[in-house]
Amino acid sequence: MVxxxxxxxxxxxxxxxxxxxPIKPGASVYRALxxxxxxxxxxxxxxxVSKRLMELxxxxxxxxxxxxxxxxxxxxxxxxxARATMLVLNKIND
Length: 94
Fold this sequence. Notes:
Helix 4 (43-56) runs antiparallel to helix 5. The chain has a single domain, classed as Serine Threonine Protein Phosphatase 5, Tetratricopeptide repeat (Alpha Horseshoe), CATH 1.25.40. The termini are far apart. By secondary structure, it is mainly α. The chain contains six helices and no strands. One of its GO terms (biological process) is RNA modification. InterPro entries: PPR_At4g14850-like_plant, TPR-like_helical_dom_sf. This is Pentacotripeptide-repeat region of PRORP domain-containing protein. One of its GO terms (molecular function) is RNA binding. It comes from Oryza rufipogon.
């Protein structure tokens, strides 16, 4: 359902649905919303969802890449560059 709402551009509704779930949503639910945020250019929700994904699995670098791509798609190259740098530094320290 989150994926369906996200694809249709109802990002706020998808986030509301996630927040109202009686069980803790898994990473796949958040990834569906993050992908929709990237497609529809909603960085505000993308940042919140990315934080939740990083809490679920802090060593998953794909979250950083996806958020970085969302910043780049919005023309925020400086933020994208900072994200990419952080990703590289995290990999070196692991």
